[in-house]
Write a structure and sequence with these properties.
5 helices; alpha/beta
């Protein structure tokens, strides 16, 4: 279940890979801050909300509804700007209303009952070992100095500077 699915690109990619997927967006008449999701209880393995949570004044409904629709042991995947590294441009998007850091998103997810939390820099096309380094946010921000769209002559291991975070949490298996 992709929340804030916009044009449905992620849903289509999942379906093309043979996965059952559906999206929900405000254009479907769903207000993520107030409305129940039109999805059955405990029917979803994974909920994604990429670049959505920072647009909500309160994440309460989004997180409660995600827990409701997730199967026990299911996963929530969030991507959001990391306030610590996006402070200078966060409000350049006038629809951004609530900033998060790796600390605050961990507290929010834990507070709503998610377990097995992993909060790492949103690094695309990077080796998994990079996420296991101590101080991954520092490494992603300062030791990987070039954006992913840097010129081709920049070595790939130096590309990927991140101003965003990837947060993953699990619904308890009960």
């Amino acid at each position: 279940l992709d929340l804030g699915s916009a044009d449905g690109a992620l849903v289509r990619s999942c379906q093309e890979a043979g996965l059952e997927a559906q999206g929900l967006d405000i254009s479907d008449g769903v207000n993520f801050e107030h409305d129940p999701f039109p999805v059955e209880d405990e029917s979803v393995d994974v909920v994604t909300a990429l670049a959505l949570i920072e647009h909500l004044y309160s994440p309460a409904n989004l997180l409660r509804e995600s827990l409701r629709v997730l199967k026990p042991g299911g996963w929530l995947i969030l991507v959001s700007p990391n306030w610590r590294f996006a402070v200078e441009r966060f409000y350049d998007d006038p629809t951004h209303v609530h900033p998060y850091t790796e600390v605050s998103i961990r507290k929010v997810l834990r507070g709503y009952g998610f377990t097995n939390l992993s909060i790492v820099p949103w690094l695309v096309k990077k080796s998994v070992w990079l996420w296991d380094l101590p101080n991954t946010f520092f490494v992603a921000r300062w030791l990987i100095p070039f954006r992913g769209d840097a010129p081709a002559w920049i070595p790939a291991f130096l590309k990927g500077q991140s101003g965003s975070l990837l947060a993953v949490g699990q619904r308890p298996k009960e």
